[in-house]
Design a protein that fits this description.
The complex is a heterodimer. By secondary structure, chain A is α/β, with parallel strands linked by helices. Chain A is built from seven helices and ten strands. In chain A, helix 2 packs across helix 3. Chain B is built from 17 helices and two strands. Chain B starts with a helix and ends in a 5-residue tail after the last helix. Classes of the chains: A alpha/beta, B mainly alpha. Chains A and B meet through strand 6 and helix 2 of A and helix 1 and helix 6 of B.
Chain lengths: 232, 478
């Protein structure tokens, strides 16, 4: 579903991502771990075609994202701090973004989606300016569900969320996994990666140093492995 | 799939309507437009009534001046008044600075009198509040506050990433925003344009504009183009700016340059490069040429002597007393014709200087679209210099015809040396038609402002090109 082939990104002399080769199959949740500047967000931005690759290709469903705009119809993106239009309500934001993606859901359907994504009913019609970060992330999940996204690109989505909200978010991801949604998530959170991810990759200085299935490692092993790479 | 341009436009309108600053600015601008149009309407109706009454009175005085010698009637003269046009309630133009009436008599081209600016304080130099001023200067300010965050806020807040990740390209985002801002502006100005259309078509019976409908249509088109240019330019600046603060500062700087500094600088430049002679020098030069002849060698007495000889030869008589017509009438008319010829030469020189000064203003419209809209708007509302010159030409033609009729009657119906004895009556005065003024047709005015129209088109092409180019280069992350 997602494939990086020799994917490289340079900003001047600085190599942000170096020859990344990665395949994520349908229904997998691939967690990219790494410190700041490891190349996690650059990888996500390349899959989103927000930036141009210096070399290599980012593929979604066997289509090069830089050449096929339609790949955007398959994916949904939730950044670290999902920002919505603060003068619009959660429902108005959802309706707007769904409309852009070609969705044609009724008001009732969208309200239901927001509810199912964990947004309190009282807040559905309130302006986003009164939302917490967790509430905004839930609107993001509702958007992904409304659009019927096949791919989720998440850039540190649980960063700054309280444990309850993080847990709710992970449950929503697992729920979407069951429906065959493929996820690429950049995160600092080892626990969340082990808990939610089917696969884990460790990145440092633009390189993918290691990748493995999360079921093959315990949380303690993952922590040791991560720290070993960070200290080297 | 719904059209993303309309979706984005709808969202932008929703957001703008919920912003207090934008709502407040829109209300202020609507208030100013209402006041400006109301004040313009009052000024129009008052001045039109005064002009119509004065013109009627002047005509009555001419017709009822009593029996007198035609040359005395030519000096008794008459007043003509510049009618206020219905469209001037929208754009006062130069009406405040050009005179409203002129006294017509034999031998002299009098100056225009009663300039409204004479009755105002020096603050009038900073411009009167007119609907055109609001549209040309203040609405661009509203546009700046509407459009400066168009892309910077989306980028700073991170919504641009989310927007683009939905698969929307930048072109519909750009045009959606432009459509939204234009819709808001349309909602603000539409009632006023509708009112202008109703007034311009409702009050046409005594108006001097022959084609008000056409002019209103052109006004709507050029103002729409001007606002489109400003909106597109503001959106482009927002695309290019890294922060909202930078975009706002850049746009405010451009606004000051476009609407204040460049127009004032070009006006001063025009006056410095092509100075006008003072009225005293101008008048003295005309009198000198009449006195000494255009070649400087044929003074008035010589020219009159030559005329006398010619007439004696033509009629084969040895004395002007034996001529079958009054030589004094002929001499008067020939003298008048010579004076007119001299006046025309000096007048053309003066107009040439005006044209050169105006050319600088016209060419400067390629630097600021404000000058284009200002000049074309004045032209279409018949409050510009060209209309003023056209009115002066019309009054001068009327004066010449009046004097010609007086001199002709004197030559044909009185005898040489008979001055106080001969008296013409109302029948002669009636041969001089009442003064009626009609402005040039709209197409002629537009031809005079072809440089400004071309510059508006160039501005539109330039901003569309910049937007098209930027839409291919823009990225949601810098």
């Amino acid at each position: 579903m997602l494939e990086a082939i020799d994917l490289t990104k340079k900003f001047g002399d600085f190599i942000a991502l170096k020859s990344l080769n990665l395949t994520i199959k349908e229904g997998e949740i691939f967690c990219l771990l790494g410190a700041n500047g490891a190349g996690k967000s650059t990888t996500i931005n390349l899959f989103l075609n927000f930036i141009d690759a210096t070399h290599g290709k980012a593929m979604i469903n066997n289509m090069d994202v830089s050449k096929h705009k339609e790949t955007k119809q398959l994916l949904s993106y939730i950044p670290e701090n999902l920002m919505l239009y603060k003068n619009l309500s959660g429902l108005e934001n959802l309706r707007f973004f769904c409309g852009l993606g070609g969705g044609n859901q009724s008001k009732g359907e969208l309200e239901e989606l927001l509810e199912q994504s964990g947004l309190q009913i009282d807040f559905i019609h309130k302006r986003v300016s009164s939302y917490s970060k967790g509430m905004r992330q839930k609107v993001g999940i509702a958007l992904a569900r409304a659009r019927g996204a096949k791919v989720l690109l998440l850039d540190e989505p649980t960063s700054g969320l309280d444990p309850k909200a993080s847990n709710e978010f992970s449950e929503l991801l697992l729920n979407m996994k069951e429906k065959g949604v493929t996820t690429l998530m950049a995160t600092h959170d080892l626990f969340r990666a082990k808990d939610t991810g089917t696969h884990i990759g460790i990145m440092k200085e633009g390189m993918l140093l290691e990748k493995f299935e999360s079921k093959d490692v315990s949380f303690q092993d993952l922590e040791k492995l991560y720290l070993k790479h960070m200290h080297n | 799939m719904k059209n993303p341009v309309f979706l984005i436009a709808k969202k932008e309108i929703q957001i703008a309507l919920r912003q207090k600053l934008i709502t407040a600015l829109a209300i202020v601008i609507m208030g100013l437009l209402s006041v400006a149009l109301y004040a313009g309407y009052i000024a129009y109706t008052q001045q039109q009534t005064v002009v119509e009454n004065a013109q009627e009175k002047s005509r009555k005085e001419w017709l009822e001046q009593g029996d007198k010698h035609p040359h005395i009637a030519a000096h008794y003269g008459t007043f003509v008044f510049k009618p206020k046009t219905i469209l001037s309630l929208f754009d006062f133009g130069l009406d405040t600075f050009t005179g409203t009436s002129v006294y017509l008599e034999a031998h002299y081209q009098h100056e225009f009198m009663f300039r409204p600016a004479q009755d105002h304080s020096s603050m009038i130099r900073f411009g009167e509040l007119s609907a055109s001023l609001v549209l040309q200067v203040l609405i661009p300010l509203l546009i700046i506050f509407l459009a400066f965050p168009a892309f910077t806020e989306e980028r700073e807040n991170g919504t641009l990433k989310l927007l683009v990740s939905q698969g929307v390209s930048y072109t519909p985002i750009i045009w959606g925003k432009i459509l939204a801002y234009l819709s808001i502006l349309f909602a603000i100005v539409f009632p006023f344009f509708a009112l202008a259309i109703i007034l311009s078509t409702g009050i046409t019976t005594s108006d001097s504009i022959p084609d008000p409908w056409l002019r209103v249509l052109f006004l709507i088109l050029i103002y729409a183009l001007y606002l489109l240019i400003f909106v597109s330019f503001s959106v482009w600046v927002s695309i290019q700016s890294s922060t909202g603060r930078n975009a706002l500062l850049t746009l405010l700087t451009c606004w000051i340059l476009f609407t204040i500094i460049i127009p004032k600088t070009t006006a001063n430049l025009g006056e410095s490069l092509y100075p006008l002679p003072s009225m005293k020098i101008y008048r003295e030069a005309i009198q000198k040429d009449i006195r000494n002849g255009l070649d400087g060698k044929t003074p008035k007495t010589t020219r009159e002597e030559q005329l006398k000889k010619k007439y004696l030869q033509d009629y084969k008589v040895d004395s002007i007393h034996k001529l079958p017509l009054n030589f004094e009438g002929i001499r008067m008319q020939v003298g008048e014709d010579y004076g007119n010829k001299v006046y025309d030469i000096h007048w053309k020189r003066l107009i040439k200087i005006f044209d050169k000064q105006n050319r600088i203003s016209s060419l400067s419209s390629f630097i600021t679209p404000y000058l284009s809209i200002r000049n074309v708007s004045m032209g279409l509302t018949a409050t510009d210099l060209h209309t003023s010159i056209h009115f002066q030409k019309t009054t001068e033609k009327y004066r010449r015809e009046l004097i010609r009729k007086m001199n002709h009657d004197m030559a044909q119906n009185s005898r040489y040396g008979e001055f106080y004895e001969y008296k013409a009556s109302k029948n002669l005065w009636k041969t001089v038609n009442g003064f009626r003024y009609k402005t040039m047709p709209a197409y002629k005015i537009l031809l005079l402002y072809r440089i400004e129209l071309l510059s508006l088109c160039c501005w539109a092409i330039l901003v569309f090109f910049l937007l098209g180019y930027s839409s291919r280069k823009i990225k949601p992350v810098l």
